[in-house]
Amino acid sequence: MATTCSCEWKAKEWVHDSYCRWTHCRMCSWHHPLDLDTDAGFDEFTEHFAHCRGRQRHASVENWFKNNISFGASVQDIVSLFPERGPFNEKHCPTAYEVENYHCIYLWLPLSKLRELFPSLPYEWSNSEDSCCFYFEQGFGLRMISFEFHEDALPGELPALLAYFAWLFQLPLDDNLEGRRRIEDGSCIVSLGMSRKQESKHHYDNQMLTTLEFVDPRNPPQNGRNYTCPEASDLND
Questions:
Q1: How far is CA 228 from the centre of its chain?
Q2: Do 227 and 220 meet the contact criterion of CB atoms below 8 Å apart?
Q3: Which regions in the chain score pLDDT beneath 50?
Q4: Is 124 exposed, middle or buried (0-12, 13-18, 19+ CB in 10 A)?
Q5: 140: buried, middle or exposed (CB in 10 Å: 19+, 13-18, 0-12)?
Q6: Where does the source fall among the domains of life (predicted)?
Q7: Any idea where the domains of the chain sit in the sequence?
Q8: In this structure, are residues 24 and 14 in contact, taking their beta carbons and an 8 Å threshold?
Q9: What is the percent of the chain where pLDDT is above 70?
């Protein structure tokens, strides 16, 4: 077991010594002599991360809903965050025909345009295909924010971003690798899931699609996904 650690926690990130094998939390200054690759090291980190203040800040819904982003926001409210798009309103938005319980329109944006709006997204793991959709109930405003991440994972492997978000939001995954929780005040459902992309000449069968969604519980879209939560639960428990 290592007895010293020369790594330094500076400006809310670790400056690592190249030879250090200690386990470090990427969201706070916590570290531990056991290697994360060991069962004991993994258990120590799991116990810490459940109560990590840094994780709680990153997972807080208030950290994701900033600026003019809120359920009920209009298309114009969201578009105003991207002035380079020019004039844009509801009539320019395509219809999300998969939503069956109301007339749903959406605004699609590449993830690369959202760095300042969602700083807790792990952009170092993203690629040019990743995206975000804002879904609106026409006349009633924003109902859901959906992030899609394209990942490589062999059968039986857990995609890296799916695992990351499950840990970040402390979402237990079911047999279908899906999880969801309603935050304690009941104002938002956080939903996580995975699907395998269809094989084509451009995409192979080891490519997965990880989906992270923030859903308005007042009128969740009926789109084939399950947003039913057994009970309200604090993401920071």
A1: 18
A2: yes
A3: 1-3, 200-203, 232-234
A4: exposed
A5: middle
A6: Eukaryota
A7: 8-50, 60-215
A8: yes
A9: 86
